[in-house]
């Protein structure tokens, strides 16, 4: 029996490159990349059999872009195995990717370069290595997948887990969107927002600048509604308490079975917090120091005037009445982001 994860980790090309069930056809496109498409409804004429329903949503699910973030990989694998053995119906065009396979094998976040900084052509700016090649390869497969979707909506969920404790266990990072009419912020998908809420996402963070992340690539270059999902804490393979991931597991399965727009219209979204990046703490020199403990949780709040970090003559302090910290890390290389500061905004701002 084909198992997506073990086939990927064993490093050999699958001897079974494709297959089908009553409902779907699947194809191994590249190492760790699987395309699954529903067969056309049996009520259509036989001459159409095997052709795709062009109204279907196209959904990309990725995990393992950071190789040690195992729980989403395990969840995705169990979903794929259920689809392939016919236990789960498919109502979307589905592309599934395991990102940094070499890092997954060694249980590391990455080997030479952080794959999630290499998309949107950033891979061309670094010396050639396995990770720059993988970014280029994934970009090509994703472009082709979305180009073949002539109708229907496009979505991408890039699933991660965080290292740090967090006041919000599960949250989404929405890539920066440039508005066509010159406003600073574009419009996000209400369908995606409702689905994320129903899948237990407690907060969403709007980025304010382009980046090398996978979700920015699919959003900006493939016009998908995309986000990076942080789904809890990372543990080694087999050590995860998958019950913590039950809502996202159920949400993904429901979306696969019914499509994105159904099944969660009644989701109560009133508790979902929305943040926007207000400043970045950039480590310029080796003398950069955070002014708070290493163990501070994500979404810890600071009040106006509090000192956040010191970097030689430069002082970072809270400028808004209240700011929340995300991903603080003083150990990055000089020139890189050592943390983000957020402000809360109204949900409605996402859709203006
Ligand atoms: Zn990650």
TrEMBL record:
<feature type="active site">
    <location>
        <position position="230"/>
    </location>
</feature>
<dbReference type="GO" id="GO:0008270">
    <property type="term" value="F:zinc ion binding"/>
</dbReference>
<feature type="domain" description="AstE/AspA barrel-sandwich hybrid">
    <location>
        <begin position="271"/>
        <end position="344"/>
    </location>
</feature>
<dbReference type="Pfam" id="PF04952">
    <property type="entry name" value="AstE_AspA_hybrid"/>
</dbReference>
<dbReference type="GO" id="GO:0009017">
    <property type="term" value="F:succinylglutamate desuccinylase activity"/>
</dbReference>
<dbReference type="InterPro" id="IPR007036">
    <property type="entry name" value="Aste_AspA_hybrid_dom"/>
</dbReference>
<dbReference type="InterPro" id="IPR016681">
    <property type="entry name" value="SuccinylGlu_desuccinylase"/>
</dbReference>
<feature type="binding site">
    <location>
        <position position="66"/>
    </location>
    <ligand>
        <name>Zn(2+)</name>
    </ligand>
</feature>
<dbReference type="GO" id="GO:0019544">
    <property type="term" value="P:L-arginine catabolic process to L-glutamate"/>
</dbReference>
<feature type="binding site">
    <location>
        <position position="69"/>
    </location>
    <ligand>
        <name>Zn(2+)</name>
    </ligand>
</feature>
<keyword id="KW-0479">Metal-binding</keyword>
<dbReference type="GO" id="GO:0016788">
    <property type="term" value="F:hydrolase activity, acting on ester bonds"/>
</dbReference>
<protein>
    <recommendedName>
        <fullName>Succinylglutamate desuccinylase</fullName>
        <ecNumber>3.5.1.96</ecNumber>
    </recommendedName>
</protein>
<keyword id="KW-0378">Hydrolase</keyword>
<comment type="pathway">
    <text>Amino-acid degradation; L-arginine degradation via AST pathway; L-glutamate and succinate from L-arginine: step 5/5.</text>
</comment>
<comment type="similarity">
    <text>Belongs to the AspA/AstE family. Succinylglutamate desuccinylase subfamily.</text>
</comment>
<comment type="function">
    <text>Transforms N(2)-succinylglutamate into succinate and glutamate.</text>
</comment>
<dbReference type="InterPro" id="IPR050178">
    <property type="entry name" value="AspA/AstE_fam"/>
</dbReference>
<keyword id="KW-0056">Arginine metabolism</keyword>
<keyword id="KW-0862">Zinc</keyword>
<dbReference type="InterPro" id="IPR055438">
    <property type="entry name" value="AstE_AspA_cat"/>
</dbReference>
<dbReference type="Pfam" id="PF24827">
    <property type="entry name" value="AstE_AspA_cat"/>
</dbReference>
<feature type="binding site">
    <location>
        <position position="160"/>
    </location>
    <ligand>
        <name>Zn(2+)</name>
    </ligand>
</feature>
<feature type="domain" description="Succinylglutamate desuccinylase/Aspartoacylase catalytic">
    <location>
        <begin position="57"/>
        <end position="254"/>
    </location>
</feature>
<dbReference type="GO" id="GO:0019545">
    <property type="term" value="P:L-arginine catabolic process to succinate"/>
</dbReference>
């Amino acid at each position: 029996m084909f198992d997506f994860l073990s086939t990927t980790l064993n490093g050999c090309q699958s001897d079974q490159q494709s297959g089908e069930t009553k409902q779907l056809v699947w194809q191994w496109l590249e190492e760790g990349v699987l395309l699954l498409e529903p067969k056309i409804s049996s009520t259509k004429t036989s001459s159409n059999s095997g052709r795709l329903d062009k109204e279907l949503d196209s959904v990309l699910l990725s995990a393992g872009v950071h190789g040690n973030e195992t729980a989403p990989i395990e969840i995705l694998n169990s979903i794929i195995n259920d689809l392939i053995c016919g236990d789960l119906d498919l109502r979307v065009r589905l592309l599934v990717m395991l990102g940094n396979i070499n890092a997954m094998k060694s249980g590391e976040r990455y080997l030479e370069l952080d794959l999630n900084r290499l998309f949107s052509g950033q891979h061309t700016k670094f010396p050639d290595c396995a990770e720059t090649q993988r970014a280029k390869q994934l970009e090509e497969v994703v472009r082709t997948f979305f180009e073949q979707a002539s109708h229907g909506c496009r979505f991408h969920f890039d699933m991660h887990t965080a290292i740090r404790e967090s006041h919000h266990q599960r949250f989404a990072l929405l890539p920066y969107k440039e508005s066509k009419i010159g406003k600073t912020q574009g419009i996000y998908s209400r369908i995606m927002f409702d689905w994320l809420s129903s899948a237990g996402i407690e907060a969403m963070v709007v980025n304010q600048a382009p980046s090398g992340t996978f979700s920015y690539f699919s959003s900006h270059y493939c016009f998908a509604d995309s986000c990076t999902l942080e789904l809890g804490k990372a543990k080694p393979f087999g050590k995860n308490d998958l019950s913590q991931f039950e809502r996202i597991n159920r949400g993904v399965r429901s979306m696969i079975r019914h499509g994105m727009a159904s099944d969660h219209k009644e989701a109560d979204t009133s508790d979902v917090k929305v943040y926007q990046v207000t400043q970045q703490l950039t480590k310029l020199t080796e003398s950069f120091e955070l002014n708070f403990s290493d163990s501070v949780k994500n979404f810890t709040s600071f009040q106006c005037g509090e000192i956040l970090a010191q970097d030689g003559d430069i002082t970072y302090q809270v400028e808004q009445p209240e700011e929340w910290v995300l991903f603080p890390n003083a150990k990055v290389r000089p020139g890189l982001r050592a943390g983000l500061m957020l402000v809360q905004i109204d949900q409605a701002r996402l859709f203006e």
